Amino acid sequence: MLHLAKQFGDTVYVLRNISRSETYGLGPSRVTWRQAVALMPMRCYHGCVPALLEVRNLNIGFAMSAPKPDRASAPNPTQTLHAVRDLTFSIRPGEVLGLVGESGSGKSLTSLAIMRLLPPQAFVSGEILFGENGQSQNLGALPDESMRRLRGSQIAMIFQEPMTALNPVMRVGDQIAEAVLAHRRVSRREAATMAVEAMKQVAIPESDRRARDYPHQLSGGMRQRIMIAMAVVNRPQLLIADEPTTALDVTIQEQILGLLADLQSKFSLAMLFISHDLAVVSQVAERVAVMYAGNLVELGTKRDIFQSPAHPYTRGLLEAVPNLKTDRAIPLGTIDGTVPPLHAMPPGCAFEPRCALRVRECARSMPPLIEVSAGHWARCPVLNAK
Ligand SMILES: Nc1ncnc2c1ncn2[C@@H]1O[C@H](COP(=O)(O)OP(=O)(O)OP(=O)(O)O)[C@@H](O)[C@H]1O
Ligand code: SF4
Ligand SMILES: [Mg+2]
Q: What is the pLDDT of residues 205-222, one digit of tens each?
């Protein structure tokens, strides 16, 4: 009775098709309420702000190339490499979600899937819903022309290395103006004025003069500011920032993070902030998603992730980061082993070969995401059964 649930519950979960085959076999267990909820996509049907972006069960794979005869460990040619597996998360309007994970965990592929810029050989399944007020559309099913209109206007992206994203033989002001002209019916003169205005908003001094510079005449930090100006000039609802500060030195990194935070609050921008650096993510994100080997292993508020991590991988990452309380006499924690290669993923929990808490069941099947507290999810039934 949905109307009764609506009166008494803050959040209503709607369950369907829970079968025994979906249970995770820890001891003589049946599907518990918590586990059953964990099997469902993370959607809020009442009492919370609707998502602006909702990624549901996203899978990205690549066909395996034929093995070279001299490589005994080369992969089976009939296999598909699963680079991103069953990824589900959402971002509310104006919210910053940090996406962290070590190199190769699938962060950039996820952002490229949202922008629909994956290479043509990638296999993609799942849904990417974008839009507000019940007007969401599945980006994967949009005609190319509609997607082109959306990209750069409602969803914009900034990359790690601006030099590869900027045109080296075009003045930076003209590049920002081009982004305006691609989406708005304005004259060239108006677009040029808007470009200079956007450069002022990202605190580029003498914007009128610098607009006539070429990318090579600007420092790395200034080039990243140009990228940000280009991304926000059309007032997008969602900004995807893929490692936007990784190529910069620490002081410039601080300035760019401050600038992104200012723009985010000024324009109520929703942001998917991607980084391998937990410290950077903790500065900008309200919620954090942790990826490991193509899987979402933990999702929660910044407080959940940094103060009560519920997945052994997240705990390991945090133990490896020094803070003011760290005792210098004790070596920092490390996570033994390496991320498994895509062609040799374990059948169960991807972290199992490196996990000190593993039990026999961990190697058998992929553990489900479990809601360990309201809005805090972790893919580890063992740690969270305690
Ligand atoms: N075109 C491709 N063909 C085959 N495999 C690919 C392709 N693009 C990416 N991959 C693989 O998919 C995995 C995820 O890549 P992705 O670039 O998303 O990682 P990432 O988390 O962004 O890492 P980094 O922090 O290094 O940027 C990697 O193992 C990568 O080698
Ligand atoms: S499911 Fe098992 S192997 Fe995976 S993180 Fe939890 S305890 Fe470790
Ligand atoms: Mg990347």
A: 999 999 999 999 999 999
